[in-house]
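User: My collaborator and I are trying to settle a disagreement about how two of our proteins should look. Neither of us wants to argue from intuition anymore, so we agreed to look at predicted structures for both before our next call. Could you fold the first one, then the second, and keep them clearly separated?

Assistant: That sounds like a sensible way to settle it. I'll keep them separate. The first protein:
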Amino acid sequence: MLCTIYKSPKKQYTYLFINKRDDFSDVPEGLMQTFGTPQLVTVVNLATKDKLAMADINKVKTALKDTGFYLQLPPPQENLLDEHKAQMKKNQEQ
């Protein structure tokens, strides 16, 4: 199962997986506008992979089969201010 991976020039660490190179027909127009002009990263044979670096390979395969694309978003950023506030509150309660 081949898939092509593109990165977004607009959103850091955001990747789009599709079934066929340069065929974005299954990707909604609104998503394409938000994603920006896709930049080719690589072509991967998912059949020979056990896992992917940042995505669950089974979710990718299912999404490609069901919708024709998979969007990998960056992991949520830590909010250091909220963590600091929580720690300060915890320290005051002790």
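The second protein, kept apart from the first:
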Amino acid sequence: MTATSPDRAVTARPAAQPPNYLTEGGSTLRSWLLTHDHKRIAILYALTITVFFFFGGAAAAMIRLNLVTPPGIFAADTYNRLFSIHGIVMVWFFLIPSIPNTLGNFLLPMMIGAKDLAFPRINLLSWYLFVVAGVVALVAVIAGGVDTGWTFYTPFSTMYSNSYVILAISAVFISGFSSILTGLNFIVTVHRLRAPGMTWYRLPIFVWSNYSTAIILVLATPVLAITLALLAVERLLQVGIFDPALGGDPLLFQHLFWFYSHPAVYIMILPGFGVISEVVPCFSRKPIFGYKFVAWASVSFTAVSFLVWAHHMFVAGMSVYAALVFSLLSYIIAVPSAIKVFNWTATLHKGWISFDAPMLYALGFIGLFTTGGLSGLFTANLAFDVHVTDTYFVVAHFHYIMVGGMVSAYFAGLHFWWPKITGRIYHEWWARIAALLIFVGFNLTFFPQFILGYLGMERRYHSYPPEFQFWNILSSAGASILALGYVMPLFYLTWSLYRGQRAGANPWAATGLEWTTPSPPPKHNFDKTPTVTRPPYQYRPEPEPQDAQGHA
């Protein structure tokens, strides 16, 4: 390994930029709100989820502030509403759309040599549905919030909660249609709009990952929609579906909810796998190790993820034999995850590694995801899961994968493709510092929660026994560092839009069709439909020679 970085193809400031998607079609608000360009819609999504990210993050900050000193600064009911808001906003309005709807929207057509997604108008409709859903969620919060947690467990949500359950589930219900439309668009685009020569085994892993995610979106999301509709029927009309007092079965809700929500874990993390599979080969100057295994590992998640939902219900009263089967299946789903981590590590082996910001985020992802994945093996174990169910061990496990892993992957992709998206270079050292702060802050925040959970601290309580205070102070201190790391990119990326150097077409000397276009790309991506003649990731230890405009 070496720390030598490839030369950056940054051009001097040209007199004027060539026409691109930011300038073609106008710069008025109307031109953006009515655009059919997948790149502009991706920008709209990015701005929208950034708002929700900091909204959900503010709720998390108040949670950690409350837990510094027992009994906390908030009443129990207020605390319930805070963690419910945090969960609902982060899961459905940031994590699920983060990479597919932003980077996926922007890059997927370019990576396969297409001019746009298959259904541009449906793509725009998907964003509008997402915005409507977000507004409904905010109305629910302003009206008083919801206290059921993001899982909406019955019969509490249908019979006993006096908060704004219907508004909250309406927001999730509407956002589900946005997800389905995006998934449908991706599937059709990959099947129908690939450039000549772009065979399945020439697709970048990012495309494989988003294609697999799209299949899960289309198959799983309707189950959640039906479940929430049934919940609304019971709450509004008193029809016995989940409430035993009305003749319903509360376990039915859990089965239906987790049948969607465990595949949803892979909706959130699979696109992150795709980003890491692009970044690691580029900054190692090597083809990805075991391309076909990595690609099919992505696809295998779509099948196996539908078979493990009941491992969330080991203490819900299921048969011990059924629990054993779901425990075994939960171990099996660790296999494709292990394949990916092994192949990324093998790609790094003897690579010409450069530690630029995208690579630092990617390495952070591998470390955090591996920790979260290994802790998942503990929760798949029946005996250990009974011990840690509903404790902070589960909180730590979930956040290591969904926040530590997924948000690191999102930032890795954002920094990797930022020059392509904006045509500007960000401040490299600020980006490296932010990546390190996030890694350190995240571990300081959530690793103590493994210990708290093992010692028996229950989650979702606004207070706790005094013996847990040391670990909670440590966790809240880490959250402060983590918050600083998350806020920093907002400033230096914004700064780069106005003061950053202009980027060449391919500043990382990366492979892939998206790097063959100028930065930012023209409205229709390619002047001429490209013909693909070789597999992806044909990296060499030294960057390919480039002309003055940054073209390889």
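Some points you might bring to the call about the second protein. Residues 1-15, 547-552 have pLDDT under 50 and may be disordered. Residues 76-111 form the longest helix (36 residues).
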